[in-house]
Structures are given as C-alpha cells and as structure tokens.
C-alpha cells in the first residue's frame, strides 16, 4: 500500500512541477506575442513561491521567465527526479549527496554575503545549484517514504 501511495505522490509532484516549469516558460512567450494579460496572470501564479527578481531570471524574447533561475532549476530537477523515482531508477550516492548539500550552502552563503560581502554568482550557477537542490529534495522525500515503508 505504501509503495502505491509513494508512486501516486511522486506522480502528483511531477505534474505540479511540470505546471510550474511550463507555465513560467510560457509567460514570456505570451508577452512576446502581445498577450500581456495572460503573461501577467501566469507570472502572478508564482509570486508566492519565488521572488521573481528580473535580474536573477533568464529572459526569453526580451521578457523574464516567471521563476528565478534557481527556482526554475529546482522545479526542473524535481520534475525529472520524481519521474526517476516513479520508474525506480533514482539512485544517489551518499558522498555525492553531501557534495550537493555543501555546494548548495556555499552558493547560498556567497550570494547572501553572510559574514562577508555578497557576491553575484550569475544565473547559470544559480540554475545548476537549483538543480542540485531539487535532487536533494527528492532524495529526502524518497528517504522518508522508505523509512515509512519499513515501519
């Protein structure tokens, strides 16, 4: 029963992330073709899950994507990682996981400037770190389900 619940959860997570990824990428396309009201409505859907700063977002056709580069990376990574969990192909070495966590914390601390001057690492670095964070999130959710299955 728990395996079925886990599979349903990750399928729902897949569709949730697909909505975020495709909706946020569709927003600048709508603005580019002159559908500003649709673009604004799509962008407003994500205002509670992302800061949406244009300087920290990728741009398509001269308009910012509705999610910042880090959030976009997280959602894309969770999208594909959850699909791997559903197919029972998600495997992650513990050392690699620790490396992902360390890199994520270093990037966040560098960008926030905790204790030192803040440094802008750029959107591509933020995107890659977001992808690492997405893998970390799926790993821990999968681990929780594994622990629940044992009990």
Distance between the termini: 12 Å
Globally, the shape reads: flat
Work out the radius of gyration: 17 Å
**Mind describing the biggest β-sheet?**
2 strands, antiparallel
Explain this structure.
The model has no long low-confidence stretch (mean pLDDT 88). Helix 3 (69-86) packs parallel to helix 5. With 151 residues, the chain is mainly α. The protein has helices spanning 2-32, 36-45, 69-86, 94-112, 123-150, and strands spanning 59-60, 63-64. A two-stranded antiparallel ribbon has the order 1-2. The protein has one domain (2-150). It is flat, with a radius of gyration of 17 Å. Helix content is 70%, strand content 3%. The longest helix has 31 residues, at 2-32.
Gist of the model:
By secondary structure, this protein is mostly helical. The chain is built from five helices and two strands.
Task: Please give the structural blueprint.
Layout: H1 2-32, H2 36-45, E1 59-60, E2 63-64, H3 69-86, H4 94-112, H5 123-150
Antiparallel strand pairs: 1-2
Helix pairs in contact: 1-2, 1-3, 3-5, 4-5
What brief labels describe this structure?
two-stranded antiparallel ribbon; single chain; mainly alpha; 70% helix; 151 residues
């Amino acid at each position: 029963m728990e395996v079925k619940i886990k599979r349903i959860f990750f399928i729902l997570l897949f569709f949730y992330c697909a909505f975020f990824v495709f909706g946020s990428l569709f927003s600048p396309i709508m603005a580019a073709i002159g559908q500003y009201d649709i673009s604004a409505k799509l962008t407003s859907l994500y205002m509670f899950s992302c800061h949406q700063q244009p300087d920290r977002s990728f741009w398509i056709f001269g308009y910012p994507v509705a999610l910042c580069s880090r959030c976009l990376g997280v959602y894309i990574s969770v999208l594909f990682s959850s699909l791997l969990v559903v197919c029972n192909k998600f495997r992650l070495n513990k050392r690699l996981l620790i490396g992902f966590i360390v890199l994520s914390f270093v990037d966040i601390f560098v960008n926030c400037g905790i204790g030192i001057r803040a440094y802008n690492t750029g959107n591509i670095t933020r995107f890659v770190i977001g992808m690492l964070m997405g893998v970390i999130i799926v790993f821990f959710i999968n681990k929780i389900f594994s622990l629940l299955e044992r009990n």
